[in-house]
Amino acid sequence: MLLSCNIFLSFVINKLQRILVPAGKAAPTPPVGPALGARGVKSMDFCKEFNARTAHIEPGVPTPTLITVEPDRTFSFITKTPPTTYLLKKTAGIEKGTGRPGHEVTGTISLKHVYEVAKIKAKDGHLKHLKLESIASTVIGTAKSLGLQVVP
């Protein structure tokens, strides 16, 4: 019983691939090529469709993508909003966060900016059931871990 359960779980897990791809710049090079090639999917087909679907986004913005590969080697994918850390760094105008959260301040952002980032993140499917205040609270936590100070 346990063996058959493990085989089933391995099959389900293997058909979902998560990668972070720059918007409009997908190419059959790593990370796209190896991730899809190992599952028998033509990476060039994915790249064309991904680049067309992300043409409205600023080129180069990291876009988390969930790719579902079917047994017949067809695929579908869902794009999500950029990572919270990317949005916060861009808003604050910093290159990277601090190595010591809570001890060093790398920049400041206003509460208004926190809510703007929270509105962007609220579009993700896994956050749709949460209130905007809850999402903003997690954005503040991420900002603090980057060394950003949130001011009113």
Following the backbone from N to C, one meets helices and strands in this order, namely HEHHEEHEHHE
DSSP helix fraction: 40-55%
Number of strands: 5
- Mean pLDDT value: 88
* Secondary-structure-derived class: alpha+beta
Biggest sheet descriptor:
3 strands, antiparallel
**CATH architecture tag of the largest domain:** 2-Layer Sandwich
User: Overall 3D geometry?
Assistant: elongated
**Spans of 5+ residues with little confidence (pLDDT < 50)?**
1-13
Work out the radius of gyration: 19 Å
Per DSSP, the total helix count is 6
Strand portion: 15-25%
CATH topology of the largest domain: Ribosomal protein L11, N-terminal domain
CATH class of the largest domain: Alpha Beta
Lateral strand order in the biggest sheet: 1-2-3
Number of domains: 2
Whole-Å distance between the termini? Answer: 57 Å
Assign the CATH superfamily of the largest domain.
Ribosomal protein L11/L12, N-terminal domain
List the helices and strands and how they pair.
Elements: H1 2-14, E1 16-22, H2 32-37, H3 43-53, E2 62-69, E3 75-79, H4 84-92, E4 107-110, H5 111-121, H6 132-146, E5 148-151
Parallel strand pairs: 4-5
Antiparallel strand pairs: 1-2, 2-3
Helix pairs in contact: 4-5, 4-6, 5-6
Summarize the structure.
The longest helix has 15 residues, at 132-146.
Structural description of this entry:
The structure is a single chain. This protein is an alpha+beta fold. It folds into two domains: 2-79, Ribosomal protein L11, N-terminal domain (2-Layer Sandwich); 84-151, Arc Repressor Mutant, subunit A, CATH 1.10.10.250. Helices cover 43% and strands 18% of the residues. It is built from six helices and five strands; from the N terminus they run αβααββαβααβ. The strands form two sheets. A three-stranded antiparallel sheet has the order 1-2-3. Strands 4-5 form a two-stranded parallel sheet. Strand 2 and strand 3 form a beta hairpin. Helix 4 (84-92) packs antiparallel against helix 5, helix 4 (84-92) packs across helix 6 (132-146) and helix 5 (111-121) packs across helix 6 (132-146).
